[in-house]
Specification:
By secondary structure, the protein is mainly alpha-helical. The chain has eight helices and no strands. Helix 1 runs antiparallel to helix 2 (about 30-40) and helix 2 (about 30-40) packs parallel to helix 5 (about 65-85).
Length: about 220
C-alpha cells in the first residue's frame, strides 16, 4: 500500500486518526501499516503518543510485527535526535565539545616547555565541560527511565491480558456447565415422559364388555 501524504496538515490529521484507532483498538493492523508508510517526523510521533500506543500491541497475535517495527523506528529517531549536535547563540556545539583548544595545547606541549605553554584560546570550552557532562548523564538517565517505563507498560499489558483471558475462560466454563445441566435436565424429562407413558399403557387393561342379562326363566314343567 502506497500512501502519498506530504503536507504537514494532512500528515497531522492522519496521525491523529491513526492514534485514535490504536487507542480504541480499531483497525489495528491497517493503522500500524499506514503509520509505517507515513515516515512521520519524531515531533509528530511524540505529539500523538504513537510509540506508547504501538507498545500495547507488541504481543498482538497478528499485528505484533508491525507494532515492533514501529517501536524500533521511534527508538531510532529518538536516538538520532539525541546524537544530533545543536548550537547555541554563540554558535558553539552543545553536544560535541570544542577540541580545537585541546589540540593547540597538546601541540604546544610537544614543541615548547611546559611553563611556556599558552593558555587555551577558548575559555568557553572549559566552562561548558561540566554542563556537557551533566547533559550527557541526564540524557542517559532519561533513556533508562524511558526504557523502564516501556518495560513496565509491557508487563502491565501482559498482566491485563492474562486476567482477561482467565475471566473469559471462567465465563466460558460456567456457560458450558449451564448448557450441560440444561441438556441433562432435558434428557431426564424425556426419559421420565417415555417411561411414564409406557407404564400407563401397560397398566391400562382393556375392559371386557358386559353381556346383557336376559330374562331367562327355566320351565319347571
Amino acid at each position: 500500500m502506497n500512501f502519498n501524504i506530504r503536507p504537514a496538515t494532512t500528515m497531522a490529521q492522519s496521525l491523529k486518526r491513526l492514534s485514535s484507532n490504536l487507542q480504541f483498538s480499531t483497525n489495528i493492523q491497517e493503522s500500524l501499516d499506514q503509520l509505517l508508510q507515513l515516515n512521520a517526523p519524531l515531533t509528530l510521533l511524540r505529539q500523538y503518543n504513537i510509540k506508547m500506543l504501538a507498545t500495547r500491541y507488541i504481543m498482538h497475535p497478528t499485528a505484533k510485527d508491525a507494532a515492533r517495527r514501529l517501536v524500533a523506528i521511534c527508538n531510532r529517531l529518538e536516538k538520532s535526535d539525541v546524537l544530533t549536535p545543536t548550537t547555541n547563540a554563540n554558535g558553539i556545539s552543545r553536544k560535541r565539545p570544542n577540541t580545537d583548544a585541546i589540540e593547540d595545547l597538546i601541540s604546544c606541549k610537544r614543541t615548547t616547555p611546559i611553563m611556556s605553554a599558552p593558555k587555551s584560546k577558548s575559555p568557553t570550552a572549559t566552562k561548558e565541560g561540566p554542563s556537557q557532562r551533566h547533559q550527557s548523564i541526564s540524557t542517559q538517565t532519561n533513556s533508562e527511565e524511558q526504557k523502564k517505563r516501556e518495560e513496565r507498560m509491557a508487563r502491565d499489558f501482559q498482566k491485563r491480558k492474562a486476567v482477561e483471558a482467565a475471566r473469559m475462560k471462567d465465563a466460558e466454563e460456567k456457560r458450558r456447565q449451564q448448557l450441560m445441566a440444561i441438556e441433562e435436565y432435558k434428557q431426564q424429562r424425556l426419559q421420565a415422559i417415555r417411561f411414564g407413558g409406557s407404564d400407563t399403557k401397560e397398566n391400562q387393561k382393556p375392559m371386557k364388555p358386559k353381556g346383557k342379562r336376559g330374562n331367562c326363566f327355566k320351565c319347571r314343567f
